[in-house]
């Protein structure tokens, strides 16, 4: 059974940093591309960052480009999201998601293309 568990959320002041981690189990992690999404109160879920199956390609939402960094560790079966220079508009529940590819080095920014999701972790940035 595939399980994704996010940790690392919390309350931080604007300008601060947080590091989210997503631990995967029940998957052949090196066959999966991974993504981070977030959902603010009363808003649609939105793409934040993605990393390809082999970890060679990363993509970010324009709103986080240059501030966030995604990384994947196949040995530890984790995907991390380093968030720097946080802003109040970064507040929301952050979810990690996995998408099976099997081969190649694919990625996707579309939430409907992901197979499994974590339960989410709350990030709150105060002004």
From the structure above, extract its key features.
about 50% strand, mainly beta, seven-stranded mixed sheet, about 130 residues, four-stranded antiparallel sheet
Largest sheet: 7 strands, mixed
Distance between the termini: 40 Å
Structural class: mainly beta
Rounded mean pLDDT score: 96
Helix-strand pattern: EEEEEEEEEEE
Strand proportion, as a percent range, falls in: over 45%
Q: What does the radius of gyration come to? A: 14 Å
Count of discrete alpha- or pi-helical segments spanning 4 or more residues: 0
Name the overall outline. Answer: globular
Number of strands: 11
Name the helicity range. Answer: under 10%
Give a description of the structure.
The chain contains no helices and 11 strands. The radius of gyration is 14 Å and the shape is globular. With 127 residues, the protein is mostly beta strands. Strands 2, 4, 5, 6, 9, 10 and 11 form a 7-stranded mixed β-sheet that branches. The chain has a 4-stranded antiparallel β-sheet with strand order 1-3-8-7, with no helix packed on it. The N and C termini lie far apart (40 Å).
